[in-house]
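If you are new to this repository, start here. Below is one unmodified record pulled from the training split, so you can see the exact layout before writing a loader.
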Amino acid sequence: MEMPTSLLDRSASCSDFLSCLFALNATDVSVLFSLSSAKKATLDSIAEITGRDRTTVFRSLERLISAGFVTKTSSVVDGGGGTRNLYSVVSEETLMETIRSRARAAVDNILEAEKRAEEELRRHLYQ
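And here is the target side for that same chain:
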């Protein structure tokens, strides 16, 4: 995982942060934010709100579900016997804990990488 330089110089945006920690892109963040205005939304309604095609929105929703930010529930369509998927953002508490947990893990990994780098530099340059 490559860390954007903006995270290193303290000017990181929300998109930079989510990209680094969860491999989300700008479209994914746009889809996530579009869900904030609706309790539950269909793929078609999200595509309309974001101005993206259904396939792009579907891929973004799958990444957001995988990241733990969005849930998908199926509901029966009245009269038709079919189902439709509804997407919604997880609770604020769940979202923030998911982000905190991933950030802590990233910091731990960085600190471990720092130790390994110091050991290797010492071994190659000063022994």
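Two things worth knowing about this chain: The longest strand covers residues 70-76. Residues 5-90 form a domain with the Arc Repressor Mutant, subunit A fold (CATH 1.10.10.10).
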